[in-house]
Design brief:
The structure is a homodimer. Chain A has twelve helices and ten strands. Chain A has about 350 residues and is an alpha+beta fold. Chain A folds into three domains: about 80 residues, Orthogonal Bundle (Arc Repressor Mutant, subunit A); about 160 residues, GAF domain (Beta-Lactamase, 2-Layer Sandwich), CATH 3.30.450; about 90 residues, Enolase-like, domain 1 (2-Layer Sandwich), CATH 3.30.390.60. In chain A, the strands form three sheets. The first copy, chain A, has a five-stranded antiparallel beta sheet, with helices on both faces. A three-stranded antiparallel beta sheet of chain A has the order 4-5-6, covered by helices on one side. The first copy, chain A, has a two-stranded antiparallel ribbon with strand order 1-2. The first copy, chain A, is elongated. Chain A binds a DNA duplex (30 and 30 nucleotides) through helix 3. Chains A, B: Keywords: Repressor, Stress response, Transcription, Transcription regulation.
Chain lengths: ~350, ~350
DNA sequence: CGTTAGCACTCAAATCGGTCGAGTGCTAAT
DNA sequence: ATTAGCACTCGACCGATTTGAGTGCTAACG
């Protein structure tokens, strides 16, 4: 257990380092108006904090910087969440006012304003269709051999993909099939579509037309892989403004990782609900072992929809970012909940 | 007009510099097996070439590097286009075999393989709907006040957007409207849709239902801004591997520019057909004044569809990239032409 | 006994002078 | 016209020195 003074000194060091990106010395802390001890006293405490693993020294004659463990303690016990800046709050409010209608765009726009407000990189995992249901299914023939399958969700989200039409299927058959599917599948959650397709539709279908198994394959193609959420990225280059990343080689790995959508998906998929803070090596991916990732989930009526996240250096403005994500995720939850009804 | 020897020396310097990224001296050129002159002779020629503005000297005691003008001369007169490497050709062939069906994905995948083959950044401006025609229009009500408009092009390309339904319009009205629109608008090129909507549909519409002007507004909303092509980007971080961009500040501007889709659109929109090479300051955007951009358009039956491009340092492997873009753009044109019929 | 002043010590970063060598331009010989 | 020779230039590199911020330890102080 840390003493009150140790906590205060640790806080001061983390705050200072977050601001300046330079090792913090005992002198500069003792000069703060809220600190009444001499540099020597601070030094003693700093030595203790280092022994506890909360601080580190880049080299003997430098000041201290927080260790991963130090940041962790700071985030868990010391942080005081200042509210959201009035200007940021206004930005977000106008965002919701404006984007109520076009929400496909809303998610990517959320990423944009997040990165602008924080000057870090923002990553948003789009509204999953996982818990949404099918509203309408359509199959539009383009020519004799191929067609576009269009899938509309109850949320207004639309997906489409090209499929090839099995031989021996006529236009009238297709209409029958589409009608049958809309009849049987409307209202079914996406993640159950494939199962229901087999259990309910297959039998019925065989009565109408031949080539049943080919059609089934086509229909499966139409709906599979559509449940994948999308990843939106913004401000990827903000990392370049951070002094600890002025070396190109360090940055390369991070930016490469950000270009790989599947990696990001994987990273975000294993996250629990609520606000999560992953500091440095706490992250699963080695590429961002020098970064911190803060994430918040949003949902509608208790159903998880997606995740918004901020990626920055370990020396991140934790307080500000956590407040912001908290605010935005709650508002997004509210917005989507309203849409659901 | 340059002498044969000057042309040979310029070629040698550009080739060497492209390979090594270091100023080329007279000695290293004279050592090449295909050069039979002494360093002193080469030096004299180099001085002349510098006077003509084709070469530059970073400082007095360094070798020469090509100037913008030098690269330009090289690209216009000296370059010899080696064919495409067998491995690259195979990559592209398998790409076409595999991606014939899903071509929404095809364009982004083309960007990916381009950046992988070249180790530069690839930018692809997706198949424009500008010259494509409407295949089918659909309006799916979500609730009483909003609906999803779905637009299918003859290419199989699908766009959708949310619209709000004017008051006093019932389900049956909507069906009538959709039928009318499909009747009148099918086969019309996208860029004429709005005009035809006013000239052909407006009158007819007023006979069916009231609130005609509100509906017109809604329909306009449904189809406008859908003609925008999409930008696909791949290998943005490849620029970081270039020695001339090991300084973060230089790279920041470029990567920032790449994140701004509208800027890229604008950049690509003003490009003429065929293969274009823009070297350094020849580029309109200041952010890429240290880069070269090579672009090639692809089309179908003479109608421009999109542009594929490679962005790299001015010290780019022009020969290789031009061959590659030429090959790929022709194949894409072929592929899309086959699709058209 | 906790706190603090004083001091010797450490070490990265900046500064400086010197050397090295790749490359040039010019001149004179071939 | 070509080339060998040579003096010259200038960035890159190297090592030595200085500087200064910051520490740890000890002894003095209230």
């Amino acid at each position: 257990m840390l003493s009150e003074r140790q906590r205060m000194i640790l806080t001061a060091i983390v705050d200072d380092y977050i601001r300046s990106a330079e090792p913090v010395g005992s002198r500069s802390i003792s000069k703060r108006s809220d600190v009444l001890f001499s540099p020597a006293t601070i030094r003693n405490e700093m030595a203790d904090l280092e022994e506890l693993g909360l601080l580190e020294q880049p080299h003997t004659s430098a000041g201290r910087i927080p260790s991963i463990k130090g940041y962790r303690y700071y985030v868990d016990h010391l942080i005081r969440l200042g509210g959201v800046k009035e200007q940021d709050a206004r930005t977000m409010r106008s965002f919701f006012a404006e984007k109520m209608m076009h929400w496909e765009g809303a998610v990517s726009h959320a990423a944009t304003i997040l990165s602008q407000m924080t000057n870090y990189t923002s990553i948003v995992l789009g509204p999953e269709m996982f818990h949404t249901t099918l509203k309408h299914f359509q199959l539009l023939p383009l020519n004799e051999t191929s067609a576009v399958a269009i899938i509309v969700a109850n949320t207004g989200h639309v997906e489409h993909r090209n499929v090839s039409i099995p031989e021996g299927i006529g236009m009238d058959d297709i209409q029958k099939i589409v009608n049958l599917l809309n009849d049987k599948l409307t209202g079914i959650p996406f993640f159950r579509l494939k199962a229901v397709l087999h259990s309910e539709v297959a039998n019925e279908l065989s009565r109408y037309v031949d080539h049943c198994e080919h059609i089934m394959t086509m229909l499966e193609q139409s709906i599979e892989e559509e449940t994948e959420p999308k990843v939106y990225l913004s401000g990827a280059t903000n990392i370049l403004t951070q002094p600890e990343f002025k070396d190109v080689d360090k940055v390369k790995g991070i930016l490469d990782m950000l270009e790989e959508t599947p990696k990001l998906m994987q990273l975000f998929h294993s996250l629990p609900e609520g606000i999560q803070v992953r500091i440095g090596t706490e992250n699963a991916l080695e590429a961002i072992n020098q970064c911190s990732l803060i994430t918040a989930t949003f949902s509608a009526d208790g159903q998880a929809l997606g995740t918004i996240g901020i990626l920055g250096p370990t020396r991140m403005e934790y307080g500000k970012v956590i407040s912001l994500l908290n605010y935005l995720s709650k508002d997004m939850t509210q917005m989507y909940s309203r849409w659901y009804k």
